[in-house]
Amino acid sequence: MKRLLILFIFVDFVLILCNKTNAGVRKNISLNGTWDIEESFCGNKVPDNYSHKIIVPGFVDMAYPSFDSTGVKCSKRNYYWYRRFFKIIGPVDQVVNLKINKAVYGTDVYLNGKKVGSNLFCFTPLLLDIKKYLKPTGEQNELLIRVGAYYDEVPDSIPVGMDFEKIHYLSGIYDDVELILSNFPYIENIQIAPDINNKLIRVRAEIRSDKDIALFNMHYSVIEYKSSKELISGETRLCPIRNINENIIDFTIPLKSYHLWSPEDPFLYELKLSTGEDTRNIPFGMRSFRFDGINNHAILNEKPYSMLGTNICFFRFSEDSSRGELPWNEKWLRKLFKKFKDMNWNCIRYCIGFPPEKWYQIADEMGFLIQDEYPLWGGPDGASKIKSDVLIEEYSRWMRERWNHPSVVIWDGQNETTTKETGKAIDAVRQLDLSNRSWDNGWGVPQSNNDCIESHPYLFMKYKGTSAKPSSEGYLNELFGVEREPDFNDANQYSPSPNGRYKNAVVINEYDWLWLNRDGSVTFNSDSVYIKLFGKNITVEKRRIIHAENIAILTEYWRCHRKAAALMHFCELSYSRPYEPKGYTSDDWIDVKKLIFEPNFEKYVKREFLPVCIMIDKWDKEYPAGKAIKVPVICINDLNNKWEGTLMLTLKSKKNKIIELKRKISIPSFGRTIVDFNVNIPKSIGDFQLVAETLFKNNIVKSIRKFSVN
């Protein structure tokens, strides 16, 4: 609220100064900031008065004074109207475009009382030529943007991000709004495709001209993003362009030497491209990425790479009681990504929807691989009205916005949905991406051998809401005692290939099911699981330890058995809803505003994502006194070189160390080693632990198994 009040004292219009001496320089004028906002019931009737203010970007629940019943169907409104004023002083450029990066639900734009255009899509930009609607230079222009107050203002043939876990569907302009002023020839779009093997970038520029030009070329330069040091400059070959909407200039720029982009070293370049009358600057990274379905690896910069990370559910977080202005607070956002780095994560899945563009820019700069998931989640039936022609149009818009981000490595067409329509759309748009990124088609059929398939192996789901109970041997033995394929909830289960399984690389981009709210209470999905496995009357602290220990076990299990090219925990930014209707899932903060992880989760799970991981492959809950057992410890190495160290296995009681065994180990790059220890179980009855440990760069890598002796 403090930020809102401060911005309210600013002038309520934008002053744009145009100067002929700046010919060839594009002007991007932000319209972010304080806008007027009002609700209405009648679709085309402009409000007579605006009694509320709001900050753009944001959601309508940020208005001041606030509206009641935001995010739910309300009989008093169908629409919200945003209003902003601006003036242009001086000669007006030939091109004046308005860009609304993202808004929900359905967008209509009016300038000076005339409708300029509309956009039914909720997750991709609206770009409008508004020059002919402008008032003469120096006069005030009134810009109105109308958005639907609820998702049912959009036809049911248009995806709106349906999510049965959500209660509120908040409307609003949730991404940047800007004016783009320049001249012809105008650069509509640029796609940069790095080619690290041939030491070049391929550039595909779309040019719009107001006249035929017989001999046209562009000037380019490639500079280092941070230092502005120039690597190369030059001009494209001469060619004709026409007075039509689209001229394609396709060329390559050699880079004799370059710095690779990776999550560990997110080095960025910038391409500056000029027509003489218009200039665009596009950041990019030199990197390659693909999947190796044979070895089930991701390949980053032509080397195997383990994708380890988490999920962000931006639209679930949108309805969280602690959200406020956080998603648009760059300081908070950078701290969020830094906390992810501290957890040893290198990738993020933007789940069931796209966050604002700033989230991608920061991922580029801080170094994360992004699986970018289009917000279509319908199960077997819920997407039946969504057809491929609609998806093709919005998929295309989506790709045009993202294809220069080095962070974006997977186009994800849908989540957990069995439909043929997404596959048709993927086939239609795939060739637009010169970098040929892999696609994930959810529970649909993978459309290429180079695509990945998603798996959501929620093993603890076995104990939810059914008569299933852990066997007498214990839930750990039942869930982890046999090596299994991660084939629960993936494309291999729902659309099996003729030989029974697809050979595509598997991406486990969801796992957990023992979710706790931020206050330590159980969620709707985890309630019965905790009762069946751990009892009704456990304390909050005990519950948090149980959660952390078991997520650590799940992590080491999927990592050490090497059945997936990527492993992403679900979920580290979502809602926390301990009240009714109780939330299905949650995240792992105890304070999301200050970004404080639940300490047990951070302690137990962080170490499981180190490049070296170990797992005690022994799952019995009890042993006979004095029994001799073999304890296998699986050890993996995700480094690009051999790793050597000392593996220690310790048998402990509550008070004493009983046995300590050590073994020197050597694990090849991306290899796996199994070390067997012979252990004699104590003759005394009681509770004990087996603890396997090693040291990786002063970090303790650990695997723990608790058991009793009877």
Overview of this protein structure:
The structure is a single chain. The protein is mostly beta strands and 710 residues long. The protein is built from eleven helices and 47 strands.
Quick overview:
The protein contains 11 helices and 47 strands. The protein is mainly beta and 710 residues long.
List keywords for this structure.
710 residues, mainly beta, Jelly Rolls, TIM Barrel, 8-stranded parallel β-sheet, 7-stranded mixed β-sheet, 15% helix, globular
The total beta strand count reads 47
Oligomerization category of the chains in this entry? single chain
CATH class (first level) name of the largest domain: Alpha Beta
Distance between the termini: 61 Å
Q: Strands across the major sheet, in which order?
A: 34-32-30-29-28-37-36-35
Average pLDDT, all residues: 94
Report Rg.
28 Å
Assess the beta-strand content as a share of residues: 35-45%
Structural category: mainly beta
- Tell me, briefly, the overall form: globular
In the predicted model, the low-confidence regions spanning at least 5 consecutive residues are 1-11
Q: Roughly how much helix do the residues carry, as a percent range?
A: 10-25%
